[in-house]
Amino acid sequence: MADIVVAVDGPAGSGKSSVSKAAALRLDFNFLDTGAAYRALAWYVIERGVEAGDPRAVVDILPDWDYHIGVDPDTYAVHVGETDVTEAIREPRISGVVSSVARVPKVRSHVNDMFRDIMRRAPKDGIIVEGRDITTVVAPDAPVRILLTAAEEVRMARRSAELTTENAGDVAAQLRKRDAADSRVVDFMTAADGVVTVDSTTLDFDQTVDAVLDVIARQT
Ligand code: C5P
After folding, report:
1. Among residues 8, 82, 89, which one has the least CA distance to residue 42?
2. Contact at 8 Å (CB) between 29 and 124?
3. Is residue 11 within 6 Å of ligand 1 at its C-beta?
4. Is residue 69 in contact with ligand 1, taking CB distance under 6 Å?
5. CA-nearest residue, atom 1 of ligand 1
6. Which of 155, 168, 183, 216 could form a disulfide with 13 if both were Cys (CB 3.0 to 4.6 A apart)?
7. How many angstroms is it from 181 CA to the middle of ligand 1?
8. Looking at ligand 1, which residue's alpha carbon is closest to its atom 19?
9. d(CA 179, CA 109)
10. pLDDT tens-digit map of 184-218
11. Ligand 1 pocket: which of 20, 41, 95, 98 to mutate (most atoms <8 Å of CB)?
12. Which atom of ligand 1 sits closest to the CA of residue 89?
């Protein structure tokens, strides 16, 4: 059971996954990427030939969705059944439908129960959990809660640089669309009471990791 839960929220392209993972490695903590769970469900929805925009059909297949995510930042991998989907869930076809799946309330309560169970079983002293509603819904009592932000143009530029094979304009448009859809479901752009904002607009990767580690050190 992890004693220290560090909740990190933020929009797409804020660097929260890579920063949270790097911080977890530095602290020898576990790490949970909750977006990967929603992506793995979107992958399964497509695999089963279900219409992602049909909430009832998505909820119907939830009991069959056999999902495993590693919480060790060194060996992080995501599986659905026996299939390793770690790479596949990053494909644009998944990013394009994940918001439709994630906005279904029964999906959210199902995955939130899973996340809390994973947090309870995490073997290391601490776990960094990152997503969109961790500071507010999944772990509102976490001793450390951080909102990781960056100016929109910086987030778009970072994400486009990651996906070199794609058209940067398309990436920015898809990211904007996804942020708009997601923010209708949860507010991840403003810090809730007691949540510390780390703005990475003018920070490089290492500086952002240091800023997050600094907040953790001050609050634990
Ligand atoms: O963080 P990432 O971009 O991989 O998240 C993929 C999607 O999962 C988001 O666009 C959002 O629809 C959903 N998500 C969510 N709540 C979370 C984490 C992710 O709704 N806590």
Report:
1. 89
2. yes
3. no
4. no
5. 35
6. 155
7. 11
8. 35
9. 21
10. 999 888 999 999 999 999 999 999 999 999 999 99
11. 98
12. 4
Other beta carbons within 10 angstroms of residue 201's beta carbon come to 13
Average pLDDT, the chain: 93
ipTM above 0.95, yes or no: yes
Question: How does 75-106 read in b/e, with b if 16+ C-beta sit within 10 Å?
Answer: ebebebeeeebbebbeeeebbebbbbbbbbee
183 is in an annotated binding site: no
**65-78, pLDDT tens digit by residue?**
999 999 999 888 99
pTM: 0.94
Across residues 11-36, what is the average pLDDT? 94
The values of phi and psi at residue 95, to 5°, are -55, -30
Rounded to an integer, what distance in angstroms lies between the CA atom of residue 20 and that of residue 126? 12
Q: What angle do CA 201, 202, 204 make, to 5 degrees?
A: 100
The H or E element that residue 42 is part of is: helix 34-47
Q: Give me the DSSP letters along 103-170.
A: T-HHHHHHHHHHHHHHHHH--SSEEEEEESSIIIII-TT-SEEEEEE--HHHHHHHHHHH-TTS-HHH
Tell me how far the alpha carbon of residue 131 lies from the centroid of ligand 1, in angstroms: 6
What pLDDT shows up at residue 176? Answer: 87
Distance 60 CA to ligand 1 centre (A): 21
pLDDT at 80: 98
> Do the annotations mark residue 17 as ligand-binding?
yes
Tell me how long the chain is: 220
